[in-house]
# Entry
Amino acid sequence: MKQSELFTKTLREAPKDEEAINAKLLIRSGFIFKEMAGVYSFLPLGLRVLNKIENIIREEMNKIGGTEMRTSVLQNKNVWEKSNRWNDAVVDAWFKTKLKTGADIGLSFTNEEAYSNILKQYVSSYKDLPIYPYDFKNIFRNEARSKSGILRGREFYWKALYSFSRDEAEHEKFYEKAKAAYRNIFKRAGIGHLTYMTFASGGSFSKFSHEFQTITPAGEDTIYLDESSKIAVNKEVYTDEVIAELKLKKNDMIEKRAIEVGNVFSLGTKFSAPFDLRYRNEKGEEKDVIMGSYGIGVSRLMGTIVEVYHDERGIVWPESVAPYRFHLIELKSGMGKDLYRRLRAKSNEVLYDDREISAGEKFADADLIGIPYRLVVSEKTGGKIEVKKRNAKGSKLVSYATISKLL
Amino acid sequence: MKQSELFTKTLREAPKDEEAINAKLLIRSGFIFKEMAGVYSFLPLGLRVLNKIENIIREEMNKIGGTEMRTSVLQNKNVWEKSNRWNDAVVDAWFKTKLKTGADIGLSFTNEEAYSNILKQYVSSYKDLPIYPYDFKNIFRNEARSKSGILRGREFYWKALYSFSRDEAEHEKFYEKAKAAYRNIFKRAGIGHLTYMTFASGGSFSKFSHEFQTITPAGEDTIYLDESSKIAVNKEVYTDEVIAELKLKKNDMIEKRAIEVGNVFSLGTKFSAPFDLRYRNEKGEEKDVIMGSYGIGVSRLMGTIVEVYHDERGIVWPESVAPYRFHLIELKSGMGKDLYRRLRAKSNEVLYDDREISAGEKFADADLIGIPYRLVVSEKTGGKIEVKKRNAKGSKLVSYATISKLL
# Structure
């Protein structure tokens, strides 16, 4: 894309009430726009990043048998009353409103009940299971305060998969597959080495759930980490008993701040029983459907990447989720045109700074936006291209052939 | 996809309160799930159709210079007060709710104000214009009644593009381009021959707006159509004066029911002025930004296609938007496996009915779901494949080579 056609511009200042690094940098560089605390619009560069993260997640969910659907935002009170989660004393984060008919409705704050309600219509036999439907959708939570940018939004973009299995053994098998898929996702998004599987509180049906926690000072969670085994424990369950059970040693554990970028949870029959979601096995006996939930905040993951990958000049995107792969900068008007045409014919991954502003402004903008490869053409570079990686100090003069190999 | 892994099943009956053909057929065939009147979830087959329609629209918007972004659902009262559209006496379709702080917020019912508010931050010079941002998003309207299935939802999926131009001439040029893009979209979605550009009421800044109306008895609108010129007039502006102005003849006009699948609207400064969205021209003079809006209901378009393309046995999807291109049916268990493997290696467009049910049930399901090419393998077909188009009477026995050419 030509930068002259991109309507966003970099800003010197973020809004004064914005405290989080992710929000400050993403607003200044034109990736997001603040609508109100905890609510952001995704501008063209931001949507490209969100789409790339979404595609990584989708590929990994499809690999383990996921089937994508899209449930509604507006939720029926009757459905959520079955599990008692309509009750504000149980769930205090609902946004609720009313139809003109007077009926109460809510905005999706999670998806368990919506899924069980839909699947009740289709599941009756062992032949119908297991199934692994998932959704990408906007989720709404009426947080009392919202100061963490896109790490904790009142509206955020989310993936949730639910597993519906015939028994605990089938559930466990998928649960392990999902954990492996999550590891792939965070690795592909560039934060695998900082993301730890973390034992956290379970529920009525399992002692633990598993969170994926990414180490960063911006994290809202405290975890205790054993570097050698790569296992972590959330503060909420960090007791001597749990440490012993997990065969960890208290002296090895390091306290860290971390962001929960994903979680997997064994739900047992907590959300199937209220919907009478049961099936008949081969012998004709009625059995409970066993559920699991597997969530990732897509926009939170984007914010986490920014918290992890930035320096004093701006964002440093990992290649897999960068809005573009190349930032082509011409220092004299029109000089980059031919190279842009050639690259563009092969790839949609080029942002071309064709604006008539100073070289200094272009370089500062490029550093703030944080695209992995900066390509400069000027009178000095002759027929060659100066390529510099965003996270490297030096640059190199290379030929078009070298660049085209990076496409 | 293997049909045994698709969790949806065809249903004999639609919900009793459902009157619209589109909803009845889409629910029975497992494309959508009714959450409440006017609110539907999109099941795996339905999401595939929605994605295909979305991609057609996206391609056509990008071709005319559109830049995609994604604005929030939650809307700030302060923004909408500027144009006086927060007022329930002006807009009665808002869903409103409150933050825990007590602040009033609304759910997106359209996007003009949100766009002007964002662009105010970026537009100041003639160099910043023209721009054509657009969004795909869920839109919420608190309709008093909702009986038309996905033709008129309380929650629906929508594309809106807004044009921001320097003057009327620049605006008009883009407006014509957008009309041509809309014609392409409806043509590619298979309803071009039934969709008429229709003169409708304008506003303070233009005498007419232009709707794209698709002829079907399910339509909520009445239009008057001149078959020879392919021009239509919405009942709301169908006066002798307008007929004369458009050089039409009253005797040639035929009254038809139609669905408004898209509209383009010249907004002038109606939504730029309240945001003080102005720019400086080459001479340094302050000028108004001229806006236009270009909307398409993606889910409504899907419903319209069903209203137009169905018969007594089910849906008959046009190839461009069908959930899959091929419906492979084996009449004996395992017989289709090898063909599925070969087709699947080349294309993601095969639904493979590997279920162990009767041939009659499989054929009835295939007709209801409405995939364009039905491929049958059985003991009778030998090494060949019986191919039948959904909208054709006869079938043909062909070789794999013939099928693979259709991929």
